Amino acid sequence: MSVNQEMLPGNKSALQTEFKGARFVIIAGHFDYFGGAERQAVLLAKELIHRYEAHVQFLGWGGNGIFADKIRAVGGIPRVFPMDLGQRGLQQKLTLLRLSRFIRKELKPLYLLPFVGMHCKVIGSIWKQTGARFAWWNQRDEGRLIHGTKTEHRLLRNLPAVVSNSFEGRDFLVQKFGLAPDRIRVINNGVEIPAPCDRTPWRTPLGLKDDEILFAMLANLTQYKDHATLLKAFATVRKTKIGGRCQLVFVGQFGDTTQMLKAMAFDLGLCDSVKMIGAVDDTNRLLAATDIVVHSSSKEGCPNGALEAMALGKCVLGTEISGMRQALGDSATGRLLAPAGDFTRLAELMVEFASSPQLREAAGSENLARIRSEFTVEKMTREVLQTILEHRVR
User: Fold this and answer.
1) CA-based radius of gyration for the chain
2) Reduced to 3 states, what is the DSSP secondary structure of residue 44?
3) Residues 220 and 328 both lie in one domain
4) DSSP character for 335?
5) How many domains does the chain fold into?
6) How high is the pLDDT of residue 304?
7) Which domain holds residue 351?
8) Are residues 23 and 138 in the same domain?
9) DSSP SS3 for 17
10) pLDDT > 70: what percent of the chain?
11) Tens digits of per-residue pLDDT, 84-108?
12) In this structure, what CATH number is given to the domain that contains residue 151?
C-alpha cells in the first residue's frame, strides 16, 4: 500500500493541520529583560502564529518592557503571574499551587514550553496539574544554575521531552545527570535572514573611515562571556601593520564585567579604538557596518550573535568551543577558531582576515549558506512540533 506523504508525521502540511488553533504557553521570564533565549522564544512564537495559526501566550513573572513589546509585535499575548523564584518551603508550595491554577484556568494550554533551566524547574514540577499535554526541559546554556539536585534528576526523568539548542547543553546534561544522549534532542536556533543593510548608518557615528576594519562582539558583558581574551587579542592586532586601521566594538547589555573590561581597555591603551555601546535594538544595521565578528567565549552554547552575523554573510571568528563549531561547522577548527583563552592565536586569525577582503567574502558566503541549510526559523519550529508530536501525553 502506498503511503500518503502529506499525512506523514512531521510533514509541513500535516503539522499545519495538526497545530492550527493549538494553545501554546511559552515561559521565558521577566518581561523587562531580552536576551538570546527570549529572542528565540519570540521567533518561535512568530512562526507558530503566522505559519501554523496557533494561539500563543507568554507567561512572565513581571514587567512590561522590551520583551513584552516584541511579543505583542508578533501577535503573542504577554501574561503576568507575579512570582518570587527565591521562595522556599511552604511559601513556595503555595505559590506553585496558585500558579498551576492560574495556568489551568486562565491560560488553558495544550503545550507548555519553558525556555531556560530555572523555568523548566518551575513548570516541570506542576505541569501535570495544568491540563497541558506536553512540557519539556529546554537546556539553552552550558549548565548555569543547574546543580544536579534530586529534584532536577526527577524532573529530567519525568518530563515528556528534553531538548537543547546546543551540543554543549546536551553534553552537560549527559555528564551531570547520566542521561542517554538519544534522550536529548538538539534543535538548532532559528535565524531570520534579513534584507541587506546600508553600512553607513552605524559607521558614521562610530567615526569609521571607509578603509577601516570594524571588529564586533555581540554578547552581554557578563562573567559567562570572555571579552577579556578578545581585548588582549585586539591589543596585539593594534601593534601590527593592519592594526592601525582596526576598531573594535562590544555590543550587549552592561553586566557584571563592564567596569573590569573598561579598566582593562584603558590599561592596554585601547581607549581610542574600543567602544562599548551597550545593547542595540537593531543589530542587523550594526552588523552591516561590521567587517568581522569575533566571539571569544570560553564555554557557551550556540551563540546567537555569531548566527546573526552569519545570516548577513559576515565573516565570523572565535574560540574553539562546541557552540562555535556547531555554528560554523567542523571545518572551522583551526581555520576560523582559536583555542579558548589563546589570545595570541586569535590575534593571528584577526590579522589574517583583516588583511584579506577575499578571505572575508569567502567566509561570509559559506556562513550564509550554512544558515540557510541548518538554522532557519522554519526548520527550528518544525523540529519543535515534531518533538511535541512524538512525546505529548494522549
Assistant:
1) 22
2) helix
3) yes
4) T
5) 2
6) 86
7) 200-374
8) yes
9) helix
10) 97
11) 888 888 999 999 999 999 999 999 9
12) 3.40.50.2000
